[in-house]
Amino acid sequence: MEAVGVLMICRSLLLLLLPVLAAAETLQTYIVQLHPHEGGREAVAAAESRLDWHGSFLERSVSWEQERRPSSRLLYSYHTVFDGFAAQLADAEAAALRALPGVASVRADRRLELHTTYSYRFLGLNFCPAGAWARSGYGRGTIVGVLDTGVWPESPSFDDRGMPPAPVRWTGVCQGGEHFNTSNCNRKLIGARFYSKGHRANYPTNPSEAVSLLEYVSPRDAHGHGTHTASTAAGAAVAGASVLGAGAGEARGVAPGAHVAAYKVCWFNGCYSSDILAGMDDAVRDGVDVLSLSLGGFPIPLFEDSIAIGSFRATARGVSVVCAAGNNGPARSSVANEAPWVLTVGAATLDRRFPAYVRLGNGRVLYGESMYPVKTSLKKGGKDLELVYAVGGTRESEYCLKGSLDKAAVAGKMVVCNRGITGRADKGEAVKEAGGAAMILANTEVNRQEDSIDVHVLPATLVGYREAVELKKYISSTPRPVARIVFGGTRIGQARAPAVALFSARGPSLTNPSVLKPDVIAPGVNIIAAWPGNLGPSGLEGDARRSNFSVLSGTSMAAPHVSGIAALIRSAHPSWSPAMVRSAIMTSADITDRRGKAIMDGDGGRADVFAMGAGHVNPARAVDPGLVYDIQPGDYVTHLCTLGYTHMEIFKISHTGVNCSAVLQKNRGFSLNYPSIAVAFKNGAKSAVLQRTVTNVGTPNSAYTVQVAAPPGVKISVAPTTLSFVEFGEQRSFRVNVEAPSPPAAKDSAEGYLVWKQSGGEGKHVVRSPIAVTWVVE
Ligand SMILES: *[C@@H]1O[C@H](CO)[C@@H](O)[C@H](O)[C@H]1NC(C)=O
Ligand SMILES: *[C@@H]1O[C@H](CO)[C@@H](O)[C@H](O)[C@H]1NC(C)=O
Ligand SMILES: *[C@@H]1O[C@H](CO)[C@@H](O)[C@H](O)[C@H]1NC(C)=O
Hints:
The protein is of the alpha/beta class. The protein folds into four domains: 21-108; 119-201 and 216-349 and 498-622, Rossmann fold (3-Layer(aba) Sandwich), CATH 3.40.50; 355-488, Glucose Oxidase, domain 1; 627-631 and 672-776, Immunoglobulin-like (Sandwich), CATH 2.60.40.2310. It contains 21 helices and 40 strands. A hairpin with a 2-residue loop joins strand 8 (238-243) and strand 9. The longest helix has 23 residues, at 2-24. One 2-acetamido-2-deoxy-beta-D-glucopyranose binds at residues 154, 156, 533, 546-548. One 2-acetamido-2-deoxy-beta-D-glucopyranose binds next to loops.
């Protein structure tokens, strides 16, 4: 109350200054969050009165001299995932607005990016949830909403043969626009919308051109990323899917029976929070069951993170929100989209390889990978070509940036290009433009042995850092170095997989180390899925080839795999909460690879819990987890209280008032019922007690016994050590005591696990939680 009084005084001062300041300043987009309307939500349920309410804030803060109608500054009005709006404001106007009673927060719009490993231009599927399909009817009756670059509706992956009509609860629309109308939706693609206002506002010079020149002002996908992710989650089965002949096989989404709704929020220059929130606001109201977001930024506090804020109420309304963890690995604490109510997904490799060896003139053969179509490549790359590297002697030419290559020096030759700075396919285009005949992409220390491949416009292969060092040594050792690329087609089962992709973002979470993130890993390297039929599979303008499929890598590709699994679980268990769905996916995850050995990291070592969370998703087990850890929306608020968030910070996330001292008094010793266990010891703390509650979703009359592998240097005891259930749906609680007399030398984290093994009944359920202990030095 006191704070409000002070704010009122500030407000009158600021209003006086406004007209002067606003004239000199440019406008930018702000997202404004409001306190619930005094008249209650019912009073503003009608769209008109809601707009009036939102507009009234603008009328009080926008400089009247500049505008005929302050409401012309309004971009979006939000009312499902939170109450508020997005508007274009001068800095001083934003400050004035911030001071108005009823305003909870005003924050600048933020540009986020797609979580593919390189720009937007990318391109597999042999990840078979066969057992899960039978149990869930292939995801029938569920709706997966995909927030991305839109959709290419003509793709065979969105064919609706055999699909039932959209569920009756569905209230979404098929929004028309450039090259898109209602006839583009069907029983598979049941909805499509687009959101460009936030994006346009960032191109003030000629906003309409900035969007329309480069892409369709409609839900139609001009990039391919959205088509790819949507088809990965819930695409129909397409026989004989290949990328220009490579990787041929059946392509189908993880939940081929589920419906898809596309929300286009990303444009050529990225994805703006104001557009993303508008998409989430509609999607939740439209009736999606799962929201898939393959985009994000760097980790920021939850109360400033639009995805965290938008997904809080989405989750409370029963929508499972699945997000990509980001591609800033292997750096520690790089994981984004880390809110405890979302499912955060890292990327793993598949056991499929596309070998394309480099045979050097000295007879040495270096392993490389490529998806260049086999037939043509034999003709073009199959003979010895002169090898060149850094022909201009410049750093730009080492990385094959556009225009950096001397045409006379590269014409007809095989050009070595370092990875980095520009997109991988862009380098291929640069080499081709300069007259080069073939390309070898060379990993640097940064990429090590990471092998995300692309469709290139010329014969090309990608070699690891070790191979790159040998390659460059050879080039400098001989006056006329030569090499040829030998393409090996598609090989399955050649590699140890899954393994964590080097680029996959890692924990511990920067903003909240007491929840382990990422939650799981899923296939995200060299994934073949649907692609706009009018684009070359490289996504580049210079690519005249056409393909209905392409190959892409990134946590962007991993997230929709998990969205598909969530749809399968929702279909099998319609009454489950998002927390139950996530618990099922986490506690059933694999921690061993196909060879039965520990999952490896792209780094070469064993993958730790900060790289893979609970492990690699296993859809067949996830639909029948035995026990689940459920969480009520209010528990997340209590959790935020335990983290010391202020009343106002929590309000920005939960949109409800909370008195943390009262909440904490009522919930002494509270711990969030998360399916993984993360303990962050701060300020020399040596012990912690955690509570967990499991719900029996397996068989009646079942019993479970605990098994614990304590992290090195940590003592863990669990009580009770057995849990018995008579009924289905029954709950049992247990306590986990964690004691760490002293942190292990030279380490700031340690890991272990806790498993509930079913002893009675069919004895088949194994409910596993990873344990992560970190010591935070402050
Ligand atoms: C949608 O567009 C197609 C192709 O332009 C056209 O043939 C069709 O009549 C349009 N349908 C509607 C309902 O406008
Ligand atoms: C892509 O799919 C469309 C629709 O099924 C089909 O007509 C077209 O021939 C396919 N294109 C290629 C290159 O396979
Ligand atoms: C919050 O709760 C505490 C403990 O119940 C109480 O003493 C305090 O007055 C409450 N604060 C507010 C602002 O309501």
